[in-house]
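Hello,

I think I submitted the adenosine-5'-triphosphate job twice by accident. Can you confirm which output corresponds to this input? Input:
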Amino acid sequence: MLELKDLHAEVEGEGIEILKGVNLTITKGEIHAIMGPNGSGKSTLAKVVAGHPQYEVTKGDILFNGESILEMDPDERAHAGIFLAFQYPVEVPGVTNTTLLRESYNTIAASRGREELDPLEFDDYIREKLDLVEMNPEFLERSVNAGFSGGEKKRNEIFQMAVLQPSLSLLDETDSGLDIDALRVVSDGINKLHGEDDGVVLITHYQRLLNYIIPDHVHVMIAGRIVKSGGKELALELEEKGYDWLESLATVNGEAK
Amino acid sequence: MSETKALESMIGEEYKYGFTTDVEYEDFPKGLNEDIVRLISEKKDEPEWMTEFRLKAYRSWLEMEEPSWFNATYEKPKFDTLQYYSAPKNKPKLDSLDDVDPKIRETYEKLGIPLDEQKMLAGVAVDAVFDSVSIFTTFKEKLAEAGVIFCSISEAVKNHPDLVKKYMGSVVPVRDNFYAALNSAVFSDGSFCYVPKDTICPMELSTYFRINNMNSGQFERTLIIAEENSHVSYLEGCTAPMYDEHQLHAAVVELVALDNAEIKYSTIQNWYSGDEDGKGGIYNFVTKRGACRGKNSKISWTQLETGSAVTLKYPSVILQGDNSVGEFFSVAVTNKRQQADTGTKMIHIGKNTKSTIISKGISAGNSNNSYRGEVKISKKADNARNYSQCDSMLIGQTCGAHTFPYIESANPTGKIEHEATTSRVGEDQIFYLQQRGISEDDAISLIVNGFCKEVLKELPMEFAVEANKLLGIKLEGSVG
Ligand SMILES: Nc1ncnc2c1ncn2[C@@H]1O[C@H](COP(=O)(O)OP(=O)(O)OP(=O)(O)O)[C@@H](O)[C@H]1O
Ligand SMILES: [Mg+2]
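Support: Only one job matched these inputs. Its output is below.
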């Protein structure tokens, strides 16, 4: 469903290249994990796929369900089914979670020809989803992420994923900041949401998450490239050895990372 | 698209009230002198005392200096080339809708304000002021049944001279300030409302002001009196066509609340604000003040200021009666080259008086938005309390927001609390919402509406939707 072809991206207007030729194919029904050292470009990759205006794709392509989405605005990509759970969820004071989600749900529903829900129907609908991630209903009436703890923000991201039912979910370090119990609950939620028609990309630093959500593929990103891919055992190997032994792979064609 | 570019494209929303109505005007000489003041009074068939009031004001005005202490720069109005009175030739009789010039009626229809009572928003009476004259007031009879007088100020001068004599100039004295003095000399029309004792006004009252004529200034005068135990809610809306030249709008609004009375005054101001380069647009220099004369009286100002090239406006409350309450809820939006210096004054004189100020300033484009507020607690005002909250929101990198709070307390029992915040609508916020499927414009609308929620909920229900829409339109394309 998602195909990245020699994807190069830089910070708009500043010429700082961050993604230096990423190739990746995700087929529906699969779970992929992307790991890699700090600053290697994992979040940037997720944001570029979601269409963040700060980055400019200078080379290569992003195909979603076979079509290039480079020209699409972020909201259009969301309508197409791409969801990003942010590493740092943004606070939106004054806009409640419910307001945002109803707006989101209905906009996406309209664009996909699904039925929109009125406030009462929507309320019933999201209450089910709250249970899925064991979130307290009082968060519905709070401003989006405003004053949420780190872990609450992460849980809220997955709650939004549950409500919006995307076909491709990019989960950027959703595990960071969750306590042990929360990690289990949220992982269970993600597992329940995942099915044979959607794809999930987990960006993480910790192999522990992968005990809960078993990936089909694990990729290592270093200096803006995917330098190694493997099965879930690769994560265990990384846990043991770190990234040093892969650094040399980051130099390609004599170009320094 | 970069942050700034997105912002700029949003700022470009066209002003949809910018059309001109082609009506014939009565001739009237330009410039200002005593003869002109007399002529205005004569045109309006006013009694001698009114003419004297005007002349006194004119003479005071001559001695006054145009103020310049505010945070705005602009080319001064050319007082000697302005036209101080402008009335459509087919002067309506004000009794029957059939007598209103169809072109003017059409104008109001276009603005979404049908004057036809059947078509009116349920429960809202309208006074329509076109350039200098009141065109038509709806629901007069229904209001009269309740004893409420709602008419143009010109009619009030003729039909209720005692009330006008007693109250006009009692809250905003003729010499109060340069523009108030000018208004007192040349005011053309405006609304008058009197709510008798023990009466709750049965419907929302509203006035729609429209400047049409290019060279005329608009100087309207509004006077609202709420007798003991009465209650009234009043809303004014303003629009103007787009011209390259600046037009002057210098209104005076006076409110008087007696014992246990409550006046709620709301404004949706959307005068033409000029173009990208600051060409054209209205100068909105308005003096609005309410006097809580009676015990337990209450005056609330709620304003949504989105238009005008330059706005200088400080709706204030004088809290004379013990236990009286003053409120100021404001959203001021500036975009393009607009400049707004607006805020309030709360003057505590009575005991246990209380005031609340909630101000939300939103600046986008190359605009400048200042909050200026004064809270004064006088010696006798035991246990006076004020709470002020002034929040500014910046959209983009090229606008400015400023807060100037002044506090003066002569009574040690007074309590004053002031909070202020400044935030910026960031690219990340917008991206976050867009990632959730919401378009860029809707994202800004959501963020801005969230920011102003506390104030918008104070607007009368009938106008809340309109206000939300207006905010959205105003900031379309302005993300930063
Ligand atoms: N807008 C930007 N301007 C300048 N540099 C940027 C920008 N965005 C990302 N970078 C740089 O690009 C590199 C990759 O950042 P990114 O956030 O994608 O890393 P990451 O792999 O997600 O790291 P972490 O594991 O710490 O989350 C970093 O060096 C970062 O500083
Ligand atoms: Mg990251």
